[in-house]
Design a protein that fits this description.
alpha/beta, 8-stranded mixed sheet, globular, Rossmann fold, 7 helices, two-stranded antiparallel ribbon, about 200 residues
Length: about 200
Amino acid sequence: MNRSARSESPMSPRRFHFFKVLEGLALALCLTAAPMWRAAAQTASFTPYQVKALIIFKFAKYTEWPKETFASENAPFVLGILGEDPFGADIDIIKGKTIKGRKLEVKHFSSVQEAADCQLLFISRSETDKVPQILKALENSSVLTIAEAEGFIEKRGIINLIAEKKAAGTQTVGFEINQAAAGKANLKFDAQLLQQAKKVKT
C-alpha cells in the first residue's frame, strides 16, 4: 500500500495522539546538533523531505520579516515551492500550522514572478541553472530563499540545506546561511538559528 492510500485511511484517536507526539519530538530536535537531527528522522520514521519541511518551518519561526511584507493583519504566511516539487505529500506535515499567528499556506510556482509575494521560497533542483536570475528578480523583496544546491549562498541565496549520508543509510540535515543576503532582504535571524548553522557567510 502506498503512502497516499495510508494517509486517506481513518486514524484512531490513539494513533493520532502518537503521531502528534512524534511530530512534536521532531520539531523539538530540528535545531540541535547533527546527531540529533538524525535521531529525529530515525525515531519518528520520517522521510528526508518531511524532516526538511519541519526544518523550513523552524526557519520561519526563527526569522523576523518586515511588517509591510504582509498585505494585512490576517494575511497568511506563504511558503512557495518554485519548480519541480521534491516534497510531494511530505509537505503536508507542516500545512495548516501557524507561524507568528498566521496560517501557513504552501503554494507551487512555475515562475519567479509568481513567487514575489511569498515569505519563504524553496528553489528546487530543477531551477539550479536559473538561480542567478531568480535571485536577481527577488533582490528588492523580503523573500527568504532556500535551496539544496552547492554554492547557493555564494550566489547570494539565503539558506542552503545540506544532506549528509551516514552509515547504515542514515542521514543528517544541516544548513548554511548568507547573513549579508538576509540583511539586504531586511530579514533578521534569531541568534539560535545562526549558532546552529554549519556556515554563516557575512
